[in-house]
Amino acid sequence: MITRALLSLSDKTGILEFAKFLVSKNIEILSTGGTAELLKKNKIPVTNVSDFTGFPEIFDGRVKTIHPKIHGGLLSLRGNKEHEKIAQENDIQPIDLLVVNLYPFEKIVQKENASEAEIIENIDIGGPSMLRSAAKNFQRVTVIIDLGDLQMVQQEIEANGDTSLETRRTLAGKVFARTTLYDVAISQYFSPGQLHIMGEKIQDLRYGENPHQKAEFYRSPHPFSPSIATAKKIQGKELSFNNILDANAALQILTEFASDENIAVIMKHLNPCGTAKGKTIEQAFAKALEGDPLSAFGGIVAVNQEVSEELATKLTEMFLEIVIAPKFSPESLQIFSKKEKLRILEVGEISSPIGEKDVRSVLGGFLVQDLDTKQVSESDLTVVTKIHPTRDQTQDLLFAAKICRNVKSNAIVLVKNLQTVGVGAGQMSRVDSAFIAITKSGDRSKGSVAASDAFFPFPDAVETLARAGVMAIIHPGGSIRDAEVIQKSDELGIAMVFSGVRAFRH
Question: Which residues participate in catalysis according to the annotation?
C-alpha cells in the first residue's frame, strides 16, 4: 500500500489535482521549494522535506533531498528484516511514491544569451538521485517522471490502493531513459566533441528494407516538427521501413518552399517522380501527376496545404501508399475512410528544418553533417553564357534547383512552367542521368530548363540536353572544363547560369 509520497517538480502541470487525490486516500505528502509552496497555497496538507529530515535546505537549495531519510526511504527493502531494523534504528520511514521531473537544463542551454552560471544552476542533482533510487527499488516504489502517467497511476491506486509490479517496472524504465538523456545533454555541453545518439522507440516494424531484416522506428529526444516521427497517423496500415524513408524524403521537399505556395510532391523510392507548383493545391497535384503518371503508381503524395474534398477525391482514384499534409478537411477524411489501408499522415505547419543534423551509419561508425537547407536565390546566380534566361526560365531554374538537391546523385531534373517533366537519378554518369530525364519527359523537354546537382565535367551532357530541346541550365560550376561547357552552350544557343552551390545527395 502507498502511505507516503514525495512530490518535487519543475513542471507542475496537473500536480494539484493529483495531490488532492493522494490526500483523499490518506497518503502523506512530502515536498520541496516551489512545489510545497504551491500545495500550501492551495490548502493541500504537505510536509516540507526539511521538516521530515530534520535538516534544513542549504546552499541556496542545492542540498535539500540528499539525505539518508530520503534515500533510505526510497531504497530500503520492505520485508527485509535487516533493512527494517536499520530503518527503525535511524527513524527512516518508507517513501512509496515519488513524482519528480528535472530542472530544464536542455531548455536553458539552448536559450539565447544564457550565462554559464544560469546553465550550471539548472543541472539537477537531487532530482536524478531520487529518481534513480526509487527506480532501483521499483519492486515496491512507484516513480513518476512523465506527468502523462499521473492519471494512469491514479486509476490503479483508486482500484487497488497501489500500482502493479508491471506498472512500476515500466515507470522505472522511463526514469532510467530520461536521466540518461539528461546526462547526455549535460555531457555534450561540457564536451562538445562527444556525440551521443539517443532515441525513443516508436514502434517495431514488420521488417526493414527487405523481409529478412529486422527494424525499429525511433524518435529523437527533441524531434523537429514537422516530421514523420511527430506526425499524427489518422488512418491506415502501420508504416513500413521504406514508407518512413519515402515519406521523410517527400516532406523534406515541402520544407524547401514557403507555406503560402501550393506545392505537391509524388515520391517513389526516395526520388520525386513528380513535383509542381500550382495556383491551387488541386492544380499543383494535377501537374505533379502529369510529371510521371506511370511511376506515381504506389507512390507517396505530400502537399503543403490542407487537403480538400476535391483533392481527396482525386487521390483516391489512384493507388497510393501514403498521403501527407499539414491538415485534412473533415470532408476529405470521410472520403479517405473508404480506403482503410491508405495511410493518412497529418504533420502540422510546414517549416524549414534549420539546424537539423543528417546522420548516416557506416560499418563501425557513423557520419554526421548539417542537413542541406541551403536555398539558392536569384541573387546567387551568375549568367555565364551570351544568352540570358528569361524571367520565366529563371523561376523554373530556381524551382528545378530545389528539386534537384532532393534527387539521388548524379541528378538531372527537367522543369517547365514550375512542373517537373523529367527526372534522372542515381546514375554513375551525368550523361546517363540526362538521358533518363529526357526519356521520361518525351516531347515535354522542348522549351524546358535543366538543373544538375554538380558541375558538368564535359560538354557531352549539355549536348544531350540541347538535342532534347532544353533551353536553359543551372549548375554550380567549378569544373576545370567550365570554359568548354560554356562555349558549347553558346554554340547550342542555351542559357547557362552558375549557382555556386553543389547539392549531392548520395
Answer: 136, 269
